[in-house]
Design brief:
By secondary structure, the protein is α/β, with parallel strands linked by helices. The protein is built from nine helices and nine strands. The protein has a five-stranded parallel beta sheet. It has a two-stranded antiparallel sheet with strand order 3-4. The longest helix is centred in the last third of the chain and has 17 residues. The radius of gyration is 17 Å and the shape is globular. It starts with a strand and ends in a 6-residue tail after the last helix. The relative contact order is 0.21. The chain binds 2'-deoxycytidine-5'-monophosphate. The site of 2'-deoxycytidine-5'-monophosphate has 14 residues, from helix 2, helix 4 and helix 8.
C-alpha cells in the first residue's frame, strides 16, 4: 500500500515547519523536516572544517555521505522524530552559523542526491507532511497535495528574530534579514532542484495571516478521504 504525501514548499520562515507540524498532527501523519537534513550536513561541514577558501571539500563529503543515515525515532508522545545515525539534533542546527552555510551545502549535487534518496525512503514507511524547497517539484512530483508558501522578506526576518529571542538565542535582525535574502537568492537560482512553485501547488502568501488563519486555509484543501 502506498503512503500519502503532502508537500509544503516555500521560502525560509514562511511558516512551513509550524504549519507542517500542525497539519501532520491533525491528520495523524508524520512530519518530515527536509531542511533539518541539509542542516545536519551543514553542521558536519562546520565541525570538520570541510570548507576551504569558500569551497566545500567534495572528497570529504563523498566519504561521509554514504555513512549518513536518517531514520525515524519513536517518541514518548507517540510522534516520530528524525534521527541521523542515532542522534536527534536540536538547536545546534538552527544557529546563524549553520543558517549562513546551509544554502551552499544544499546546492551541492552529491548532498542533494543522497538526501533525495533518504527522503524517498523515509516516506515509504509513514504518511508524511514534508516541508522543503523541492518536494513538490523533484522529490515527490506525484504528492497527493502540494502547497507553496511565500511571504515578504522583512516579515519573515522578524518571525525568525522573534523565534530566536524566544529560545534565548543571540539574534541580530539585520544579519537575519541579510541571511533570509541571501538564502532566497541561492535557493531559487541554484542549478539543481531550485526553489520554485510546482504547477499544481496551491500558493499562499502568509505575510498578513496568523498561523491559525493559514492552518484553516490548508485544512480547507484537504481531500475528504484524508
Ligand atoms: O527550511 P530550512 O530553513 O531549515 O532549510 C535549510 C536550507 O536547506 C535552505 O536554505 C534550503 C535547503 N533546503 C533545500 O534546498 N531543499 C529542501 N528540500 C529543504 C531545504
Amino acid at each position: 500500500m502506498s503512503t500519502k504525501i503532502i508537500a509544503i514548499d516555500g521560502f525560509a520562515s514562511t511558516g512551513k515547519s509550524t504549519l507542517s507540524k500542525r497539519l501532520a498532527q491533525h491528520l495523524g501523519f508524520t512530519y518530515m523536516d527536509t531542511g533539518y537534513m541539509f542542516r545536519v550536513v551543514a553542521l558536519q561541514v562546520l565541525k570538520n572544517k570541510w570548507l576551504e577558501a569558500g569551497e566545500l571539500n567534495d572528497a570529504a563529503l563523498a566519504s561521509f555521505l554514504p555513512e549518513l543515515n536518517f531514520h525515524w525515532v519513536d517518541q514518548e508522545d507517540g510522534l516520530k522524530a528524525m534521527g541521523a545515525n542515532g542522534v536527534v539534533y536540536g538547536e545546534e542546527i538552527r544557529t546563524q552559523e549553520v543558517s549562513a552555510l546551509v544554502s551552499q551545502v544544499a546546492a551541492n549535487a552529491a548532498v542533494r542526491q543522497h538526501l533525495l534518496e533518504q527522503q524517498r525512503s523515509l516516506a515509504k514507511s509513514a504518511n508524511v507532511v514534508m516541508d522543503g524547497r523541492d518536494i513538490g517539484t523533484v522529490v515527490f512530483p506525484q504528492a497527493d497535495l502540494k502547497f507553496y508558501l511565500i511571504a515578504q522578506a522583512e516579515i519573515r526576518a522578524q518571525r525568525r528574530f522573534d523565534e530566536m529571542q524566544a529560545k534565548g538565542l543571540t539574534a541580530d535582525f539585520d544579519a537575519i534579514l541579510a541571511n533570509v535574502v541571501e538564502r532566497d537568492h541561492l535557493d531559487s537560482t541554484r542549478e539543481i532542484a531550485p526553489l520554485k512553485k510546482a504547477d499544481d501547488a496551491i500558493e499562499i502568501d502568509t505575510s498578513h495571516f496568523t498561523v491559525e488563519e493559514v492552518f484553516a486555509l490548508l485544512c480547507k484543501q484537504l481531500p475528504t478521504d484524508f
